[in-house]
Amino acid sequence: MARGVTSTPISMETSDELCRASLVAAPLGQGDADELARVFAALADPVRLRLLSIVAAQGEVCSCDLEVPLAKSQPTISHHTRVLVEAGLLHGEKRGRWTWWRVSADRLAALRRVLGS
Amino acid sequence: MARGVTSTPISMETSDELCRASLVAAPLGQGDADELARVFAALADPVRLRLLSIVAAQGEVCSCDLEVPLAKSQPTISHHTRVLVEAGLLHGEKRGRWTWWRVSADRLAALRRVLGS
Questions:
Q1: Is residue A44 part of a domain?
Q2: B14 vs chain A: nearest CA distance in angstroms?
Q3: Cβ–Cβ gap A37/B50 under 8 Å
Q4: Residue B117 confidence class, pLDDT cut points 50, 70, 90
Q5: What is the ipTM of this complex?
Q6: Domain span at residue A28?
Q7: Is B22 part of a structural domain of the chain?
C-alpha cells in the first residue's frame, strides 16, 4: 500500500443464523430459511460466481483488475461486489481510489456445513 | 407401496459440469458459472430450502405430507419440486396418485466440493 493512503475495511456484520442452520439435519425454521435463501441468491448469478472465483484464486484482487476478465464496467462490478458483501461472501479494503477484495473463507465453510459436510 | 401400483422415477439428467467446477481453485469458465448459478437459484428460495430440509430429515416424503408443514397448496409444492428436480437436487418416484421425494445426496456433495471442501 502506498504510504499515506488510508485503508478502510468494507464488510457486513452477518448474522449467526447461517452457522446454526443445516439443510440436512432437521427441518429449517423460517428465519434460517430466509437468511440462507439470501446467501444462495447472491450466488445465483454467473457474473458473481466468476468474480468470486477470480478473487478466490488470487487471494486478493483490486476492483480495477476485474473489468477485463469479467468484461464488465466498474459500476456493474460495484453492484455485484455490493451484493456479495451483503451476503457476507466477500470483504474488501478501500485503499485510495480502489477497493481490494477477498473471499470470506469462513462464510464458504459455513455454507458447506449447511449443505451437510 | 400398494400391490399393482406402478412406480415411475422422476429425475433429471444433470450435466457433469458441477462435478468439475470449483469456486475456489481457479477462475470459473462461463459454462460452469451458468450451470452453477442455475443450481444456486434453485436454493435461493426459503420455501424450497424448507422443503429440501423436510425431505432430507425424513429420508423420503410424500407430496401429500408437504402441504401442512410448508403451509402451501399442492400446485405450489409441485412448482417448487419441479425447480428442485431440474437443478438435480431432488428426485422422486410417482406411486399412484402421489410422488415420493428424496434429496440427491450426490448433488449436495458436489455443491460442497464446489464451495471448496
A1: yes
A2: 17
A3: no
A4: low
A5: 0.89
A6: 14-114
A7: no
